[in-house]
Amino acid sequence: xxxxxxxxxxxxxxxxxxxxxxxxxxxxxxxxxxxxxxxxxxxxxxxxxxxxxxxxxxxxxxxxxxxxxxxxxxxxxxxxxxxxxxxxxxxxxxxxxxxxxxxxxxxxxxxxxxxxxxxxxxxxxxxxxxxxxxxxxxxxxxxxxxxxxxxxxxxxxxxxxxxxxxxxxxxxxxxxxxxxxxxxxxxxxxxxxxxxxxxxxxxxxxxxxxx
Length: 211
Known about the structure:
Blueprint: H1 8-22, H2 26-29, H3 35-48, E1 52-56, E2 59-62, H4 63-78, H5 82-108, H6 120-132, H7 136-158, E3 163-165, H8 168-210
Parallel strand pairs: 2-3
Antiparallel strand pairs: 1-2
Helix pairs in contact: 1-8, 3-4, 4-7, 5-6, 5-7, 6-7, 6-8, 7-8
């Protein structure tokens, strides 16, 4: 996976997600988001990702990032109550710092590398996301904004000529992170539901035996 050209993973995952959404799997994995909003995102994202705009002499922005940010704002607006929004924003900033610092560490010293300097910050950050939140809206907000924030910090720390948000490699990380976080959360929900149903079954059996 790591040896593929940057952007290949994002394209493959995008096509897989598009097929799954078209075949009715939205109700299984992301039922809280409407079909219309999912369809709109899947249409706008690849179109916007074709365009890159220089915002400043030191900042370049791929327009696909704007679609992700608008989606994140939409998800944040759906969160309720208000203190949940504060919690998600706090976790987002924390994830951004973790992403940037760990990415900087693996660049400076190869001893910190587990898989690769490109993917290790993602693995650590997604693990933190899974410990913090479980819903698709919260995961999307934290991964999108947190990873963008962390990537900007990391590029600034490396002392490059400028900051580019929305690179092909970053989209690889974003798609893999979203899919991993959603699948893990869904698997945990299934395990908890199975455990609840099993406990309820044995409880009912125990009650019938006592009678």
